[in-house]
Design brief:
Blueprint lengths: L1 H9 L2 E4 L5 E5 L4 E3 L2 E4 L6 E7 L3 E8 L7 E5 L3 E3 L8 E2 L2 E3 L8 E9 L5 E12 L8 H44 L24
Parallel strand pairs: 2-12
Antiparallel strand pairs: 1-4, 3-10, 4-9, 5-6, 5-11, 6-7, 8-10, 11-12
Length: 206
């Protein structure tokens, strides 16, 4: 059916910026903006474009086929292509050089594949620019870990003491049982033991 064919084509092209869509960079540093694409039926004369805040084009490239690397159509002077499309991954990542605070915002990686009836797809990544990377304060975490570790240690100590005490009580009770058995008035004549009821003297004859 024609409708199903168009539906399948529409979802054959996929574009991804990785597991997370946020990137943090230091002011005046270089930052990698990752992007890869996949296609089920291959590509020919594929066009990809990077946009800043949806409107400003910062890189525009074209890939003739899987056997060739992308050719540059146009770019911002501070943007460098660092990907490759002849390897396993169709990598169309770029590096933004000398990042400024004004570079913070939304970056869109857009791909169009004529071989898939001009199917288009894009992925977005958000860039945050900071003056310096803030180290996470682990004081609270260390306190929590210390308290939890201490509690676990106390619990283990309590359980050990409990087991020792129960062991001592059990041994004490077992000892008392042995004393009771040895001093009982049971008939032990079958075992040849003295002190049995069978040794009671018979009453004298009248």
């Amino acid at each position: 059916l024609p409708g199903l064919h168009v539906f399948a084509i529409a979802f054959a092209l996929e574009v991804s910026v990785g597991k997370t869509n946020t990137v943090m960079a230091l002011n005046n540093s270089n930052v990698l903006l990752p992007c890869t694409f996949t296609t089920c039926i291959g590509f020919q004369d594929l066009v990809f474009t990077w946009y800043f805040n949806s409107t400003e084009m910062i890189y525009h490239g074209k890939i003739k086929s899987k056997a060739s690397e992308p050719s540059l159509v146009g770019r911002n002077p501070r943007v460098e292509f660092v990907g490759s499309t002849t390897g396993k991954d169709n990598n169309i990542s770029i590096v933004l050089k000398n990042v400024e605070f004004s570079d913070a915002g939304k970056y869109t990686c857009h791909v169009k594949n004529p071989k898939e009836k001009n199917a288009q797809h894009n992925a977005t990544i958000f860039l945050t620019v900071v003056q310096k990377m803030v180290e996470a304060d682990n004081t609270v975490t260390l306190i929590i870990v210390g308290v939890v570790g201490g509690l676990i240690g106390l619990l283990i100590l309590f359980m050990l003491i409990k087991r020792v005490v129960l062991f001592i009580i059990k041994k004490t009770r077992d000892g008392k049982k042995e004393c009771l058995v040895s001093s009982s008035g049971n008939d032990n004549t079958e075992n040849g033991l003295a002190g049995s009821k069978a040794e009671q003297k018979t009453p004298p004859k009248a």
